[in-house]
Design brief:
The complex is a heterodimer. Chain A is mainly beta. Chain A is built from no helices and 11 strands. Helices cover 0% and strands 50% of the residues of chain A. In chain A, strand 4 and strand 5 form a beta hairpin. Chain B is globular. In chain B, the strands form 2 sheets. Chain B has a 5-stranded mixed beta sheet, with no helix packed on it. Chain B is mainly beta. The longest helix of chain B is centred in the C-terminal third of the chain and has 4 residues, at 97-100. Classes of the chains: A mainly beta, B mainly beta.
Chain lengths: 113, 114
């Protein structure tokens, strides 16, 4: 158990819809990173939030957006869902952006039909 | 793209040592080797990391070759609960944002058998 929680556990949406995924970071951690993991692949970095600001982004389109709140919890929003967005979405928290260790939550499984 | 090469899968008998190899021939001088694992239906879990000296913690040992082009993660007494996908990652520590993110390959699926 890492102390990082994510909700919901599973989600089913249809193409074109919008989705919001949530992450609560481990106590004392002010940085949250989001990853997308397609079936059979390793996780891919989406973006990182530090002190409520985006602090780096991977190769994902603008319809992937996020927020971080004053309590350091975070949301991942995806607009105009596509079939290829079906994946496990993982968040990871860390003490700061420049830290050795990220602690991952269990993930949210998103299925787009 | 991931900078590491790992075998797709490996088997290990319960109670024996599991030795997981990783090639990182293009590693630069300031990049460390990190290992994470992902048990089915869970998020990745940090195991260990090192620069050039061998490292050991309560979970595993990391052996890095002198030229730093390859490394081996050793689980000294594998149990059934060690069945997971193991990822070897090279990364410059103390970088945030997109530079400091973890770049995962496909990893090695380790199956520990009774």
């Amino acid at each position: 158990e890492t102390g990082v929680t994510q909700s919901p556990t599973h989600l089913i949406k249809t193409r074109g819809q919008q989705v919001t995924l949530r992450c609560s970071s481990q106590s004392g951690h002010n940085t949250v990173s989001w990853y997308q993991q397609a079936l059979g692949q390793g996780p891919q970095f989406i973006f990182q939030y530090y002190r409520e600001e985006e602090n780096g982004r991977g190769n994902f389109p603008p319809r992937f957006s996020g927020l971080q709140f004053p309590n350091y919890s975070s949301e991942l929003n995806v607009n105009a869902l596509e079939l290829d967005d079906s994946a496990l979405y993982l968040c990871a928290s860390s003490i700061g952006p420049r830290t050795d260790t990220q602690y991952f939550g269990p993930g949210t499984r998103l299925t787009v039909l | 793209d991931a900078k590491t090469t790992q075998p797709t899968s490996m088997d290990c008998a319960e109670g024996r040592a599991a030795n997981l190899p990783c090639n990182h021939s293009t590693i630069s001088g300031n990049e460390y080797v990190y290992w994470y694992r992902q048990i089915h239906s869970q998020g990745p879990q940090y195991i260990i990391h090192g620069l050039k000296n061998n490292e050991t913690n309560e979970m595993a040992s990391l052996i890095i070759t002198e030229d730093r082009k390859s490394s081996t993660l050793i689980l000294p007494h594998a149990t059934l609960r060690d069945t997971a996908v193991y990822y070897c990652i090279v990364r410059i520590p103390n970088y945030g944002g997109s530079q400091g993110n973890l770049i995962f390959g496909k990893g090695t699926k380790l199956s520990v058998k009774p």
